[in-house]
Amino acid sequence: MPKFPYAPLVYGALVGLVAVGVALVLPTYPRFVFGQLAVLVLVTLGVNLLLGVAGLLSLASPAFVGLGANLSTAILLRAHVPIAISIPLAVLAGWCVGWLLGFLSLRLAGFYLAMVTFGFLNVFLVLLNEGRELTGGGYGLIVPPTRLPFLGPVTLQTAIVLATFTAGLATVLVGSLQRSRVGRAWLAIKDNPVAAELQGIDVPRLKTLAFAISSALATLAGTYQALLLGVTNPSAYSLNVSIAHLTYVVVGGMAPSVVGPIVGPLALFVVPELFRAIGQYREVFYGAILLFVLIVAPNGIAGAISELGRRRASGEAKQ
Amino acid sequence: MDGERFEPRPRELVEHGLGRTFQTPAAFLDLSAVENVLVGAYARGKNGVARGALRTKAAVAEESALREQAVALLRWVGFDGLPDASTRSLAFGAQRQLEVARTLMSEPRILLLDEPTAGLAADEVARFAAMLRELRDRRGVTILLVEHNVPFVFGLCDAVTAMHEGERIATGSPADVRASEAVIASYLGAHHGRPVVPPHEEVEALRQELRAVEPREVARGEVLELRDVVSGYGPTTIVREASLRVGAGEVIALLGRNGAGKSTLLNTVLGDPRARSGEVLFFGRSIRGLSPDRVVGAGIGLVPQDRAVIVNQTVTDNLQLATFGLRLSTAEFRARDDEMMTRFPRLAQRRTALAGSLSGGERQMLAIAKVLMRGPRLLLLDEPSIGLAPAIVDELQAIVAALRDDGLPIVVAEQNVGWVAPIASRAYLLEGGRIVEEGAPTRLAESATLAERYLGSG
Amino acid sequence: MSLLVGGIAIGAVYALVAISLTLIFRATGIVNFAQGEMLMVGGYAYVILAGSGANPAVQIAGPIAAGLVLGLLFFFVTRVLLGRAAEITVVIGTLAISILLQAAARLKFTDNPMRAVPWLFGERDIALGGGTTVSINALTVVLATVVVFAALQWLFSRTLYGKAMRAVAEDARRAAITGIPVNAMLALSWCVGGVVTAVAGVLLSPVTGVFPAMGASVLFPAFIAAALGGFESVVGALVGGLGLGIVQTYAVVGVGGAFRDVVTFAVLVAVLIWRPQGIFATVARRTH
After folding, report:
1. Is B6 near chain A, with CB under 8 Å?
2. pTM for this predicted structure
């Protein structure tokens, strides 16, 4: 990691700009898929931060995506403010709810945590369906036309640019965070909570923090998703979606990397989407891939490739 | 601490200058070597989420200063790998160095070490002792360590407290403690009232007496043979190239101080842990790699140190469980059950009691009865006399002698030499996982070297 | 009155699944997120056999066989294929099996519920005194639960295999040196859990119909019932399941059907606050 101050910000902006550049040269449909990829990368960064870095299994990620989509749209509809206000407000709410959920499940680990977050997701879905005008009930909400200062009306194009830039920036910042003092503390907790505490690490605070950041990222992704699709879709936040998010993370390696959260959605979402080869088999595909990777390559596809590379390198060294 | 009372909350203790290590080094495997050490500086650091993500000027400065310090510490503890090396691939000794460096990184004033030499080779132990001395003398760190390697302790420490079965039996300078009767007794086993090591004539008389009842031979030849067995748990190697033989009708004593590898050796025969290399032969057939229940099925019975009864079930149910897979008829089961009740009259009154409610002695009887229910061809006893009342210890000795007289080959791992010497035909002495001596138990027991080997030379 | 019986009937289904979860967790240390799919497969096995006009003995034997096979499958995946993986990985593995089985059912049978007639006695109500009626199926469910519970008690306290499974659950190492084949007993525990849950599927089929997500909707209440028993006590799971069924049924009348899950979640949070030590004691014992 380079030594000069604010390096991640500079590199993140560069990566974001490159991502925007790629999005702009793509034809219409692939560009739309690329925008969705950016949304998924944001979610997966957050889920990976929880599962792959802090070692916490949460099934609530779709609830936060849904929260972002619905809350930002509801704010636009009711308060008539620009998205420059609605999105930060929604993300703040996501942070707070995530912090609360993390606090609630502080003393839980492993499957109990999975259970409670699963319950939280169920409750969210009920509230979503019963929220009447606030959430549009079973029909969802239609995103109203909105403007951004300097950029003018928010079109699909603007939404894609925003999402891809944010995803690029977030990837570098999260990567930097994972290798900082806080990131090391998370990894220590994941490996051995007792030893971590004996090194002076405030385990409860760091777990809650991981939840809050992860939730904020998913909420942010949700706000972009609503802009991309133009509507909120109340049926898009089920347990199956949690499992899809887990699959991205597991395929990406469940480790403190930023390549994993890109490889996962790229391999499992974008490729099938571009070839439109999956259709009704999507869930079977995800389930099978997930189980296969857990059994055959527990370090994920990215991990398996780097392992292969290491073996080859050491093989060459021997010769 | 410093005259202040503390809630035992680890985080606060660390902030006030306490550091500790674990018996099995708890390296954080997802972190590189230097990152592991940096975790030790967590309480000293100030970089939060924003600083960590953005790498502000202050964050970069803190990070590089701490990293420099961490690399220096790694070198000081003798870590010779790359600072950025992955922790997963590190050898056991290196992991321990890493843990010490990590603990020192929090700049402790008091250092608690839990069995710091466990699993280290001899030269590593010497280097470790030198390091601790330097910590004490140069940096003024107070060190409190729990250790079974007595020579290491006596060579290093200013004050020693010896404990036996949860009670303090001696405190003082190393010389005082080494001379303490109670300490010698706890290591070598005082058989209440009698001297620590029975006088030669008494043992000889016993041996003559024992020879008079020559065990009837059930099977000819080798019962059990271990060849160069190596085993251990996780990254730790405990048994190193141990070889031994058990003949028909023999009682073999496995001697050696706490932590010498006696239990692990017996457990390896059972298949948990599995022998990493070497050969385990039972009546000439290899049983290496079989799961414990298959080894038990082959006719080896182990009574482990914790007695291994199923505590939530009754005495009768325990005996019944022990016949799993034998397909005994009710009549056969009853016959064996009756035999056990005659052998262990104490159990007869507790048939319907839950095993968890039994006294220590009753539990030990049940554990042996469980093994005998299967009609084993070899019995392994791990520290049978530990934690038992004197009367029971005598009773147990009689029971084991009776089993030997019935022709059952037995291996007894015991610290209490006085207990096992009279009934054993041969003994092996284990040290650091190796078999260092073999011979008649009395010769081993009386030899001056035994006390020396246990407690270190003066 | 019929409301109460209805609550007890749905609670009985929760209880059976919760008992299965508890048995499997005690033996293997695994909480199975695909337990609901075992119930779903039992439901489909029943509805197909019942539809083909097989006799009642076959109608119930089929789902039981399906539960056995699924139990073996889960044992194989979690013990043989994922035996060395961390707890979280195994939980994710069961989630993967869950989505696989559900999606497979969706491909084969679509999302439309298949109607099922109640086992053995058909669709009839019987009149109780005072003008109230109770569906005979609700009574069948309650009766079947009593029978299954009694059978489990007999199995675990009277038979050698049952005692051996308990011994393995208590301490696998001690059981092994006692001479008990640990893996076989673990497989058997999975099978018992599979069978009990498949029977729950048969019982639930006439109430909700048979559809791919039928098990998923039972899973969460069953988790909570099992948590009430600390994932340790079969009686706790039974009482927890019945209690939850009754509370939910009355809650539906009070606050409306959609908020059933909210009530359930509230119960979970209450359990966690009310007796966390009971729940965490188990977790702590497993991890240390």
Report:
1. no
2. 0.87
